[in-house]
Amino acid sequence: MRQGRTDVVGPEYVFGIVVRLDWRDVVEPVKIRENVGKVSPESFDLLGSQFDPRQFGDVTDRLGIDARLAHVRSEPRIESKGFGRQSQAPTPKPGDMETTRHFTATMFVVHDGETVLHEHERLGLWLPPGGHLDRDELPHEAALREAEEETGLKVSLWQEPTGTESPTAVPLPMPAQLLLEDINISPDGVGHQHIDFIYFGRATDRQLAPATGEVDSDRWSWFSADELRADNRFDRDIVALGCRAIDYVAP
Asked: pLDDT per residue over 206-219, tens digit each?
């Protein structure tokens, strides 16, 4: 069950049972009544004037909760002003799927008017280097790391950090594009997506030397903008972003 400010009323009382009543979970009304006396009036200043500790018996009675019941289910929620509006959640439909999302970063590496791509073994798509952000890693740092790990190339970021800064805030390199990418698709819907930060970078040479465990260097190929446009193996986003990267970085 979701809990509220247990630190306000003490560990002996689950504040969420009263403040965020959600009868879709398991609720023990006997516990509510037993603990009413343990809640201080000061705690309810957080809730607004609509709640009063002396009225909890009335609240439970109005909801049809009897102390003899062990559990209550399938009743409406109570809204609390102090913790924001809580609306009735929609009833799940058969086949509904929860979509999970992860942050990723991608680097279009350019050298001498071409960008480097490889065919992803599992996805069957031609992609530039990229991957998930590590813990405490910034998006542009992840893009540079992935490019070096997957290709062995020494890459410098094309985007420069610009914008407002202060003693407690600094600008970060702006991605060339932000994409929401469908990764796991089934008849029930999209199960997983990537929020992808797209960056452009310049390589000092073409000496591919992927790290151990990465795709072999012979699986990578360099493509010009004309080759990207003419080859139907590439998805439209790869063509568009690859051409943009070449156009921006090559000069």
From this structure: 999 999 999 999 99
CB under 8 Å to 157, separation ≥6 — which residues? 140, 143, 144, 173, 199, 200, 201
Could you give the CA distance from residue 38 to residue 40 in angstroms, rounded to a whole number?
6
**Residues 26-35: pLDDT tens digits?**
334 444 344 4
CATH 3.90.79.10 fits 100-162+171-249, yes or no: yes
Domain-wise residue ranges, the chain: 1-84, 100-162+171-249
H or E segment and range at residue 196: strand 189-203
Tell me the CA distances in angstroms from 192 to 72, 94, 150, 188, one per residue in order: 34, 19, 23, 12
The model's pTM is: 0.62
Residues in the chain: 251
